[in-house]
Amino acid sequence: MLRSQTKLMDLGRRLCRSIGNNNGSNLTMVEVDDKTGIATLTLNKPPVNSCNLELLLDLNESIKQIERNGSRGLILTSSNDKVFSSGLDLNELHQPNQDRLIAFWRALQDMWLSLFLSRVPTAAAINGHAIAVGCVLATACEYRVMLPGFSIGIHATKFGYVVPPFILISYLSVLPRYIAERALLQGKLFSIDEALHVNLIDEVADGKSDAIIKCAKFIGSFAKTQPDARALTKRQTRAQDVQLLIKDPEGQLRESLEYINTPFFQQGLEVYLAKLKSKSKE
Ligand SMILES: CCCC/C=C\CC(=O)SCCNC(=O)CCNC(=O)[C@H](O)C(C)(C)COP(=O)(O)OP(=O)(O)OC[C@H]1O[C@@H](n2cnc3c(N)ncnc32)[C@H](O)[C@@H]1OP(=O)(O)O
């Protein structure tokens, strides 16, 4: 075999190493770049990465796995080239089985805390629409790079949802208060130019690999910091944002469950789901 061929094969081998998250599911995939030590965490629940119980549990496990295996950073992206994430799986909220709803909402709270407080540098390569909790996943990260042609935001008020405090906090941790408030009240989905203008995203990329490279460059900017000092400083900076959820997770859970179970919420959701389904049949 030619030396150049061997070199290329070595390069291919070193590029990425898949690591499992111990539950054997493919709802998320983790690959660690052997050279940079950065893990790419890919959402992989067709068709639109809507977050159901299983995806949330899987995602949380993958985030923890990435921290345990000593990765230098985490890049969150999607295997779908049009949708980063369509947010919560609305079927989990519609006429829910109460035990499953409790497990679902707990998994959502836990996953958000894990990502928001992750000790490693985090960045989102947003290669598709990031809607509602899809946007929350991106804003929980420290840096956002997005591809043109897609929308990002929390449009809950448009379809009659009041979002829980930790979702508001996620927006407020990135946007100035008056912009976050106006966008939430309008139920605004931002185009890429609008998102860049208000710093909801940090950079625009011209493709997924460019987005990953830009995220890796951001993560590389911490190379000269001491990881424990960085992690503790991040935790302190974000401490106030997570106070409510850490102090009283069960109270927060109860409040959300009460709201989800109201006839008002259920009726609105029924109409919205029917619209979504009829749109997808067009
Ligand atoms: C107290 C609780 C408050 C919580 C408030 C907010 C939190 C949330 O995250 S709620 C979720 C909000 N998300 C949405 O409203 C997104 C809705 N989806 C879309 O706008 C589009 O699907 C999207 C732009 C993401 C992608 O468009 P397309 O590529 O054209 O796909 P389709 O629309 O054809 O969808 C394919 C398939 O998926 C179903 N779908 C889409 N999103 C969801 C979802 N969030 N939950 C459940 N199912 C979803 C859609 O109905 C289609 O299904 P089929 O008809 O069976 O093919």
Automatic annotation (TrEMBL):
InterPro entries, from UniProt? ClpP/crotonase-like_dom_sf, Enoyl-CoA_hydra/iso
Keywords, comma-separated and alphabetical: Acetylation, Fatty acid metabolism, Isomerase, Lipid metabolism, Mitochondrion, Transit peptide
Q: Cross-referenced Pfam families, in alphabetical order?
A: ECH_1 (PF00378)
Gene Ontology CC terms, in alphabetical order: mitochondrial matrix
> Where is it localised?
Mitochondrion matrix
The pathway it acts in is:
Lipid metabolism; fatty acid beta-oxidation
Signal sequence coordinates: none
Recorded catalytic activity of this chain's protein:
(3Z)-decenoyl-CoA = (2E)-decenoyl-CoA; (2E)-tetradecenoyl-CoA = (3Z)-tetradecenoyl-CoA; (3Z)-dodecenoyl-CoA = (2E)-dodecenoyl-CoA; (3Z)-octenoyl-CoA = (2E)-octenoyl-CoA
Q: Name one GO molecular function term.
A: delta(3)-delta(2)-enoyl-CoA isomerase activity
For the keyword Aminoacyl-tRNA synthetase, the answer is: no
Query: Biological process GO annotation list?
Result: fatty acid beta-oxidation
Assembly and partners are described as:
Homotrimer.
Task: Give the protein's function.
Answer: Key enzyme of fatty acid beta-oxidation. Able to isomerize both 3-cis (3Z) and 3-trans (3E) double bonds into the 2-trans (2E) form in a range of enoyl-CoA species, with a preference for (3Z)-enoyl-CoAs over (3E)-enoyl-CoAs. The catalytic efficiency of this enzyme is not affected by the fatty acyl chain length.
Name under which the protein is recorded: Enoyl-CoA delta isomerase 1, mitochondrial
Per the record, the gene is Dgri\GH11303
